Structure formats: structure tokens, C-alpha cells
Amino acid sequence: MMNGGDDAVKAQNKSRTLGRLDSLDMEASRVPGWQDLNKGFSTALILKLAFESIGVIYGDLGTSPLYVFSSTFTSDNPPRRDDVLGALCLIIYSLSLIPLIKYVVVVLSANDNGNGGTFALYSLICRYAKVSRFQNEQVEDQKLSGYRLPSPDRAVRRAAKIKEALECSAFAKGTLLLLTLLGTCAVMGDGVLTPVISVLSAVDGIQIKKASLTNDHVVLISVAILVIIFSIQRFGTEKVAFLFAPCVFVWFLLISGIGIFNIVKHDAGIFRAFNPYYIIDYFRRNGKQGWISLGGIVLALTGTEAMFADLGHFSVPSVRIAFSTVVYPSLLAAYIGQGAYLLKYPEDVSQTFYKSIPGPMFWPMFVVAVGAAIIASQAMISAVFSIVEQSLALGCFPTVKVVHTSSKFAGQVYIPEVNWILMILCIIVTGSFKTTSYIGNAYGMTVLAVMLVTTTLVTLIMLMIWQTKLYLALAFFIIFGTVEMVYFTANLYKFTQGGWLPVAFSSILVVAMAVWHYVTSRKYKFESDNKVSMTSLISRLESDLRLSRVPGIGLMYTQLVQGVPPIFDLFVDNMKALHSVIVFVSVKHLPISFVPVEERFLVRRVGSKEYRMYRTVVRYGYMDSLIPHQEFEDLLLGSLEEFIKVEAFALTMLDESKHHENFDESEDSSSDSLHPAQEKKSGSGSSQEAYAASTSLIHQRTEELETEWEFLSKARIDGVTYLLGSSVVEASPSSSIGKRFVVNVLYDLLQRLSRKSRVALQIPHKNLVEVGITYTL
Known about the structure:
Potassium transporter. This protein is α/β, with parallel strands linked by helices. Helix content is 63%, strand content 8%. The protein is built from 29 helices and 8 strands.
């Protein structure tokens, strides 16, 4: 009995520390280190993932040799010998500096539980400092296994100051979110331009063997291939993904082999391009024209961001091995070989890639090139789907339908609306620009925008989280930021020659996502300001004679994670009834990649037991898939059962602890006046009384547990009804003109174009009850 008393005291102390009892207290303790980044991978598995990553990640970067030299120089003004050496020197050192040193060495280390991309960087910063713009945060979220960051060995004053500055500045928080949205929108812009430039540049080579084909024919063939690519998206990539890696691997073998062939055959002196002097000489001789040509050279870096964005499907070692051993050497060999060919045939600069192919190899290379272009397009389209899903999860994108095309891989999704919009935009861009030179001008802008955002966020992570030495973090930001900004300004010069396209596209997306996020945040504040007080709730449940409780479970959805939402009063006023069991459901997405199923549900009780009202917060990571409604109901009932058991056990321990305290006090007060024999007899009787009282308490709690669980089970059999608010959002009459335009015009348009909440939450229509609610912001 004394051991039981000690357990009770521990339970009591635990409940006092937490302030309230919830199911997470027990569940989180069972999931130690759900995603351990230090987990070991076998050498065979790393090599297998490295091979697979070649097909998924490096298709875009690998097809860049199709169009880099043709976008840098024009056939009207063929490059001189020193110009070829200078441009090639820029390509060599750009590939070495950005993809190899920046991404492979540094950026890949800034992953979020193995996931990469702009949102991963943002989530790392949000977990370290309270800079998130999402208002439904809870202290309990920080207990999640995937939420934790390694604790620094020592407190660094500089990191603490940066963290404090970010947390205290609304402007800094807004800027950080805006940078994240900008990087996200730039990647979406890649989703339009990558299929166009990859397919168009691959098909363009057919004119060398079929001179009768005009540019219009090339455009029509490219459009037909693009339509096929987007039409098969609904089947998912799983069925054809096994072909990606072999095809792209063969592509890298061929371009490297042909590059070596051209070096040996045409001019082995091309290796002088490794001398950095040729970069200085290139700009000295060409001046402004040399700076403008950087807009073409930067295309050698397109697809670099995919190394980080698609990291979640592989591992850091596998991505590093694939780039260092296959991709980087193959690209160097391809570009050096093309340079050697141009030293001898500078007039062929507009078709450098296909002209440099030995005759017998032309058609095999053409077929593989088209295949590699399709794979590059597929990879970027899939990346856009994943990014839109992440944006949806964080409340930054209008509601669209998300279809999961694979039962094995949660990240493989298909979004119909986004797919067809991308296809239409790709067809328009292909038909309007027709040549890769203009499209290349637009493409470079999106690539560099993503790189600049990544450089900024990684620098912040180096200073705050990694606590890197100041001079190293500044060196990273200055060196890479300067290089990327120089390339960016060169692309800005070509703003009227295609560079305007990604700016316009990204601007529209940023505005749409910012408006959606702003109004969503204001809706949450409206619910928080107008939530039902507990006094009012008790009054409605106990005093309202017109209110009846009907059989079944009612799942009332709300954004609130605390308090009773205003929609509760609306349901009561309109229906004059409530289900026998009410569960307030709040679905929230956290700035982490995944939430384990064991930690998904956070359950609490609302009011007294007889009310049969609960609250559950359903937590998802930005890479998690929503649970289908049938499975969701099973998991929810299982979480409620677990909560009731834990609550009954804790209350029993607390009652037993109080009983022992009272018993010890009464025993101490009477022990001095008793004869030893009487004391022994009394102690024996008291122990029996204590045991009987303890047994009675346990029996009582067990009966209460069984009664409540039987009630819930019966309610589940009676049926589950989903209770949602059909919302109308409008700006208050006193709002400014700008706010009224944002809320009443822009958000209203986005809401009309988006899908309803029940579609996003995968709620069956037959089990749905909606009531109108007006949000006045």
C-alpha cells in the first residue's frame, strides 16, 4: 500500500505540473525519438537510394546541357575562342560553387527531420524562435518527438539576441513568412517553365536531321508531348518511377561519353578553362555584354534546388553520393566537351548539343534526350503538387482537392486543379515564346529567386540554431549571396525579353497566398474573441428546457484549440438539440514534417462528465496526409477510450493519495493515548479499513469508466455526424478601403474558386450538417 501511495503522489505531482490531464501525457512517453536523424543506413541501402535519386532529383539539372551555350551566345554573333573559354570557366566554377559547395556541403544539412525545401527551413526557424504567424499554437505541441531540436551545448549571446529580435518584431515575422512564400511561388514558377524549356530544347534538335520541319512544327510536337505529360499525372508516378533512374543514368553516361569524345577529337586544350583568369578576361573584354550573358550561363544551375526540395524521399548521404560521383563529373565532361567542339565550330552555337553528337549516335541521343526532358518535367510537376499540399497544410493556399496516388508513399499526390492550370500555362508559354532563348530568360529568374531565399534562411539558421561562428556565417551569406545577386541582376536586364513572366506569375501567387493566410488568421481571431464562456455553456446545457440531446456523436469542427467556438450557439439556436456526445475537433498543421499516429490526437474533457463533451486537437505535419473519415473515426474513438482510462487511473491514484494522507493524520493523533496491544489491534483494523476504502474507490472508478465507455460505444453505433460552419467573410463597415478590397473582393474570389472545407477534410456528404456563420473582420 505504501508503494501505491508513492505512485499516487507521483501522479498527483505530475498532474499539478501539467495543469490538466490529457492523452498526450501517456502517448508521447511511448514514442521515443520517432524520427532519429542519426539512424544508421546500410551501405547497400544508401547506394540504392543514391541510384534512385538520379532519376527523381537530377533530371532537370542533367538536361541543362541541351540549352546553356545556345542561350549564352547567338548564332548571329558566334563566340571567339577566348569567349568560349571564359563562358566555360564560369560554368565550371558556378557548378562547383553553388550545387557542390553550397547545397551538397551546407544546405543539405539544414534539413527538417530529413525533409528539405523552403517550408523545411521556415519550420526549423519557427520551432526555435516564436516567429510563426499561425495563432493556434499550444505548449503541448513542443512535446512532439519531431518538434524537438538538439539543445546547444552552451548559450550563445548572439543567437539569443537574434532570436529575441525576431520574436519581438512583427515586421521580422511578416518578412520571414513573405520570404518563404516568395521561395515557394518561385518553385511553382519552375513547374511551368521546366516542362516547357526541357521538352522544347529536346525536340528542337530534330530540325538538324529533318530540315523541312519549321519552328511551328517543333512547337506543335512539344505541345503534344506536354499534353501527354499532364494527362497521365492522375495515374501517379509510382507506376513509371522505376524507369526514371535507369533512363537518367544512361543520359548521364551518354553526355559524359560524348563530352570525352569531343575533347579528344576537337581540342584537348579546352582544359585551360579551369584557369580562373579566363573569367576576369571574359568580363574585361566583353564588359556589359559579358554581364548580360550570365543570364544564359545561370541555366547550368537550373534544377539545383531539387536536391534540397526532394530530399524527403531519400537521405542526405545518398543525395550527396549521387551528385558527387555521377552528376557533377558527367556535367563537367559534357560542358567541357561542348566547349571543345565550339572552339572548332563556333558557328554551330545555336545547336551546340545536337551538332556535337557523332552521327551514328544522333537518334539514340534524341530519344534519350526526350525521355530525360519528360522525366525532368515530371519531377518538377510532382514537386509543385507537394509544395501546394504543404501550403494548404499551413493555411497559405486556397482549398483544392488532393488525391493520393500511392498507398506506399504519402508524398506522391495529384492535385487536379493545379495540374490543368499548369498545363494551360505551359501551352501558352510554349506557343507565345517558341524559342528556348526567351524562355531561358524567364527560367533564370525563378531559379535565382529560390536560391536567394535559401541563402537568406540558411544564414539565419547558421546564426541561431547551428550557432556557427559569425565570420563563417557572414562568409556564406556574402559569397553565395553576391554570386546569386550578380546572376539575378543579369536576368533582370532581360526583363522585357521574358524575364517579366516569372515576376508576374510569382506576384499573383504571393498575393493570393498572402490574402488567404491573412483572412484565415483573422477568422481565427474572430472565433477566439467570440468564443462561448463556460458560464454560458453550463447555462445552455442545464437551464435551457428546449434543448434536447439526441443519440449519436457530433463532431463539431472549429479552428479554436481552446474554448467553445461561437458556432456552438448557432447550432443550438437553429437545431434546438445536441448529440448525446459532442466532440470539438480542431485540425491543425504544425511546422514539422510528420506527426506520428501515436501523437496525432490530443484529447481533453469540456465541462463535467455528465455533459459528455470533449475536445480533440488533431495534429498533422506539413508532409502528412489527411486520414480518411472511417479510419479517422476509429482513431478518434480509440483516443477517447485511452483518455478515459488514463483519467480514471489518475483520479484513482489521487483519491487514494488523499485517503492515505487523512489516514496517516488520524493515526498519528491517536497513537500516543493507546496501550501497545490496543495500538496493534487498532493498526490492524485501520489497515483493513484503508484496504476496503481503496478497493471501494477502485471499484467506483472502474464502474464510471465502464459506464462512460459503454455510452460512447452506443453513441458510435447510433451514428457520427459532422457539424461544420458554412462561413461568409466580410470586412466590417469601419474598415479601410484596402482591407475591404482584400476581404470582400480578393478573398471572396479565392473562396468561390476553391473547394469547400468538407472536401478538404474528406467528410462524407451524407453525414454532414452545416449552419451559416458570418465572420465580420
